[in-house]
Amino acid sequence: MATKPKVAICWLGGCGGCDEAIVDLNEALLGVADAVDIVLWPIALDFKYHHIRSMADGEITLSIINGNVRNSEQEEIAKLLRQKSQLVLGFGACACFGGTPGMANFRTKQDILNWVYKDAPTVVNPNKSRPQTVTRVDEGELTLPEFYETVKALNQVINVDYYLPGCPPPTDLIATAITATLENKLPLKGSSLAPHKSLCDSCPRNETKPLKIKIDEIKRIHEIEASPDTCFLAQGVICMGIATRDGCGTSCININMPCRGCFGPVEGVKDAGLKMISTLAAIIDANNDTDIEKITSQIADIAGYSYRFSLPTSMLGALKKRDGTQGEQVG
Amino acid sequence: MWKTSETGGAHVEQAIKQLLPPCQIKCPINEDIQRTNVLISLLPNTMEEARGGIIQIGEHLYERNPLFNICGYVCGLCELECNYKNEGGAVRRRLLKRFLSDTYTDYLKEKPEAIIVKDRGDIAIIGGGPSGLMAAYQLSKLGYRITIFESGDRLGGALWLIPEYRLPKAVLSTTVENLIRIMGIDVRYNSKLGEGRTTVKRLINDGFKAVFIAKGTPNARQLTFGKDIVEGQELSGVMYGLDFLYEVSHGNISPDYFKNKKIIVIGAGNVAFDTARTARRLGGDIAMVCLECEDKSHRDGIPADIDEIRGAWEEGIKIHASRGVRKISGKSGKFEKVHCPRCTRVYNEKGFNPEFDTNDEIVLDGDIVIITIGQAADRELLKKEGLLDELGRLSADPHTLQSQVNPHVFIGGDVRRVGFMVEAMMEGITAAESINQYLNGENLKTVKKDYEPFGLPERPMYKQPTEVLWIPPEKRLHFQMFEKGLTLREAIDEAKRCATCGPCVSCKACISIGFEKSLYAVKVDEAKCSGCGVCVYICNYDSARLKSKDGKLTSDTDIFRCKSCGMCVPACPSSARQLVDDLTAAKISKTLTELA
Amino acid sequence: MKKLKIVCFSCKFSWGYLTDDTLLAADIKNWVPIICAGKIDPEYVVEAFTRGADGVLILGCPEGDCHYQDGNLEARKRLAILRQALLTHGIRPERVKLVLSRNPDGKDIPVYISEMAKTISSLNQEPVSTERTS
User: Fold this and answer.
1) Domain that holds residue C94
2) Cross-chain CB nearest to A206 (options B528, B531, B571)
3) What pTM does this model have?
4) Mapped to the 3 state alphabet, what secondary structure does B31-44 carry?
5) Do B365 and B226 share a domain, yes or no?
6) What ipTM is given for this predicted complex?
7) Is residue B281 domain-resident?
8) Domain tally for chain B?
9) Has residue B283 been placed in a domain?
10) How many CB atoms lie within 10 A of CB A163?
11) Is A32 exposed, middle or buried (0-12, 13-18, 19+ CB in 10 A)?
12) I need a surface site. Which of A31, A176, A265, C74 has the fewest CB within 10 A?
């Protein structure tokens, strides 16, 4: 009998949602479990890191890694799995682009630690304690991984062969990806296993949207009773769908919430946020300074909204903060 | 799509439906209006620095239209169709041309002679007016040797009848004289068709390969009332506008010729107003009588240009509109009164068919009556030359202008159909093309060009036209120009208003000044395009559009409307649009990599 | 004082078209003449900062004068929003400047650049604070 291919599923800096999404395969999961040999899955199974370390290089056929990298343990495990695997699939927005924790990159590490351990209104820390990488206690030495300066996406620490975006990726794409791997029908390395176009391509509201969307007032989703049939942009609500890769099945749109961009940029685009900025500017209907000022000041937080999932891999995210780290909010 | 040549010009296969901005469609010779507007808007700030550029622009216009100097004083048809007219006012193209001719007319005197080998044969042109001159020019360029047979003692034809306060004589004479000099055209003055060796038959026998008849309309129309010729036109004191203006143009009329005289001018076309305002400047007290009504928006409205009507009114000329002339009466052979019944209607379904109410008649007295109701060709002469068909009509193919009675003869200009100066010029160009094809043994073109006009691009704001200043009426009763031309600054600002409605293929100004190497085609990557429509919104020229493909919407480009401005490229959220062969992004990358 | 690197984009229809480009380029470093300010992708601005620029200056046509109708307006809208994003990430909006005017001989371009350098140089001296304001 041929040995079953070995598959590792591992979380790094993630929330558990991606692992949950795999569990959501339901009955199909059992089929997968029959076809492969899962050698690591911290949320569900009891294998340990040393099991992986003892394997030969390339012994694992596919490692499905979700979560971003922000500490030394996450980097270590990512590199370990890379070494031992033939293929690595970056699973979910955190692995692919950095994910929502990536927004931490709008601050410095110093800023974050100060807030959490000193400045936040609910902090009580009279001893000014801070987490240390090494702490001596009577029983011996306690260690913590090193907390890095920035959040990184998976491909900023190891080579990633395939990407499956989403927060989390939808079950149908997961099933397709796993099947394609097992049947050896994967596209070129480096590909995303999701459609190439933007969400507008499959959005049910695309056909009824006006040919010329002209935004003369920007509203946040909670400020209006959004019509369930009309394009959000046409209603003045910022929807990232226009600059976000398709494939999620318009799950947010279907419950009358605008897209937040968890599938990252469209194929071939490096920075979804800059595209969103360009596009939003193009469809704002303002012919003079006063109107431009008025409408753009209605945008609550363009950086946070457009880079919610993708700051670490974006062009903006790579810039050095030169003028202060407060990251002042506008508007 | 676009291909570039070494000169950086873009070539597009000739479309059967020609795409032009509406101003260039209206212009009978389809002049490069848009391109010259853009070039003028980019002139330097001082006349000293701008002179070279102005002459370059002029040279480009001269290539197709050696009479363009004159257009800037007397034409302006293009402005009637300028898309900007609905947003505050047409671009003042006529004044822009006048601005060019202010410098270019002087330059004409030094413009070098053209070096053309004239070995393709001799062509005779009867009539040295705008039509004949244009034909002479075009045929000379093609290598024919031209002889113009002009019946008078000067070239220019009916242009001489335009009063000096509208067209300075120096501009007219410099333009036509230098045209002859530059192109090496032979002119025989005082040579009338039908006399001596100047008949069609003899000209052909003498070796001219073709004859172009452009002798205009020398005969003034007589006044009629219904079917009858109005009595009294032979009285002393009754004259015709054409003859009057002719004498004025020859300097035969003294400056206060009409002082203390009451003059009645009959007619309401531009020539009638020329007559009336000239007479006014000769000291007369002028009243005009015309069939047409005052409401210019009505079919029966006064046909003259609104500026003429306004000028006349300012100069104290009284207009009796909606009046016909039933009779001109006099005493002892001298004119005394005109009898004018009310004209109730000028045109009906059949055309020009005035109706009168003779119970409502006014009587105007005066010293002189000048009749200016139109002009006609010399049909007797044309008949003698064998150019009328069996029904007595001057027969020439309306597209090729070739006579259908005598294939060596071509006919154009006012003699064939009375029209504007520039229409006559176009017929000169057409006749030249036809003659060339005929002598080459080719089939003459009969395809009429079909033009599609473009609309005004969307823009955030519209500007008012430059104000045109006229000398106040009490100070302008002389024959100097009363209209103030544009300064360099005004010309640049006015030219900048041009919204460049027309397609790039009809312009290419940006390439001729080196802003772009070529016009880039837009390529849409349909694998990326989701049909979101942002490109449609940002495009101001209606070029980016959505089309249906396999049940989905996808972005498309109308290449004839695209201006290669590149604004749709950054706006596309999927980077699905790009300008082919555009090196801007590469140049930016290089500059950023080598930051100094 | 450290020499500042300013990248300058200028629209061909209003800036420097009366002077030969190579002559102007001798006085203007990091210069990109472009056919329309509306063609400037925010990616170019961010890339400039990525490559070490201290500021980006965009010289466009006066209001109402854009040859392509509203390129200067598009640039204004785009930059207004881009500046908000840059600010969140810790880059002051003064580092991206848009001037809508005309200067056919282009002789003023170095002046605008040095004026911008002056404005930015005062920014560079602000201490990078680690205190969080509320």
Assistant:
1) 6-100+115-125
2) B531
3) 0.89
4) CCHHHHHHHHHCCC
5) yes
6) 0.91
7) yes
8) 4
9) yes
10) 26
11) middle
12) A31
